[in-house]
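Q: Here's a chain of 362 amino acids. Please give me its 3D structure as tokens.
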Amino acid sequence: MVKELLENFNPLDYVGWLVLIAVFIALTVSFASYPAIILVALKKNLLDKSGHRSSHSGTVPNLGGIGIYLSIVVAITITGAPLETKSLFLILGGITVLFFLGLKDDILILSPRKKFIGQLLAAFLLIIFTDTRIYGFSGILGITIMPYWISVGFTLFVYLLIINAFNLIDGVDGLAGSLALMASVAFGVLFYLSKDISMVVLAASVTGALIAFLYFNLSRRRKMFMGDSGSMVLGFIIAVFTVRFIDASESSTTSLFRNSSPILVLAILFFPLLDTLRIFFIRIVIHKKSPFSADNNHLHHRFLSFGFSHIKTTIVIVAINIILIFISSFFRTIEINWQLVILLISGTILYSLYFVYDWLKN
């Protein structure tokens, strides 16, 4: 009876229920696990201690990634049976590899080289076994279809860029979690419109996990950081969303987003990519040092230096990013190179506005 039910089950008929169940499970698992995780972290002294470049004071548990990982895995394991299990299980395998690498880095210290190899392995296996990759740029700069190995190499670069972008922006309370939540909701809507229900449910699971995490991350008494175990898992999932959305849009002649998917993705990820590319330029070109060396040159550090609180910094950055998503959605029917120009100009102006105003005022 159960077998017949699953064989005749059409996820499109029950999207709302699947989303609600996934969010509820992830939310419940997260809220149930965090008090225990905080208690263990305090007893075992597994804490992030403030230093010369920290934007917080005191010691805070940095094992929030455990709750994020557990809630996503449980939610997908329960709701994923009638969905596209091959892709979901490969995604779960990838986040498991990155979770344990990140957890080791949170508790001990893991070299950037080992983290890089783990990220490369997780992304490569997913690309090869699902053949989900970025084929071209939908005509941006005249590029449509890339040769196979160039496509694979570029897709790997996209995975590494996004994973490390979310790792690098995790420096202000609520910022990485809020941007990941915004991205998950945005991609969830896009996948729903594209009828990719497996990704809708995965996005719902991430959303539930992050709502619970942000409650503790923004708490004064029971504060918790996500650590590398959380930021790498979230970065990997957002990268999966990115590649899958562009791949599906470019592969279908009837897709609503065939001529705009790369621009919509850039809009969703504008701040993480902007800050990462900016910080790499400053470190490599100006300071002549490793792009992975720590410093206080992130955009969120600039907001803090202007007197913004952590919460105000997060709200301003996320609000601007949401505005950029709406701008890109509004112009998605025009020629794609013009879409790119409008996005880049809009993003540059909006993120520079306050700094220009403060400079003129002084």
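Q: Can you summarize the key feature?
A: The longest strand covers residues 47-49.
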